[in-house]
Amino acid sequence: MVKIADVKVGQVIKNEFDQITRDLLKDYANASGDTNPIHTRDEIAEKAGLKGVIAHGLFSFGFITKLFEDFLEHGKFGTLIEIGVEMRGMVRCGDTLITEAKITNIDGNRVYFDVTQTTITNVDIKGKDGAIVKQFEAGERGYITEKDIKKGLVKTKEVSEGILTYRERVATPGSAIVELND
Description:
Elements: E1 12-17, H1 22-32, H2 42-47, H3 57-71, E2 78-85, E3 96-107, E4 110-126, E5 132-135, H4 137-141, H5 146-150, E6 154-159, E7 162-180
Antiparallel strand pairs: 1-3, 2-7, 3-4, 4-5, 4-7, 6-7
């Protein structure tokens, strides 16, 4: 149950999705009616100047609305009043999509959030000798650019198989307002 007394400034709600595949994007294209082939066919996406298919903007936006619908238990505890986002980065197959909303203000029954949707794009895993143990689509297709490196978006961390190289970037920043029931 979500009541105004249960929320506080600084509180974060979050969801994470790591099952973005070509088949899922094809299903979404068919369900949404947006059959633009840059979302389903690599060769067309490449001709358009992309390095492979990209997810529909509304596909990733749907995870933002889902975050709030889950938080409000589909209207049981309140209403999603407004969402405003800026789509800045592409979401690709194999990405992990992390959606977070942080409460910035509470005014009466209205709760204001800063929304951040981040993509984690795995590039490769290298062993201690520097040899690639596993390469992901981003590494194969060259999704990571020099600009990503210069901006400090490319990171590494130790995993069980070796050192994972990945890109972490904000794809969609924004804000939202919900109104909780009494």
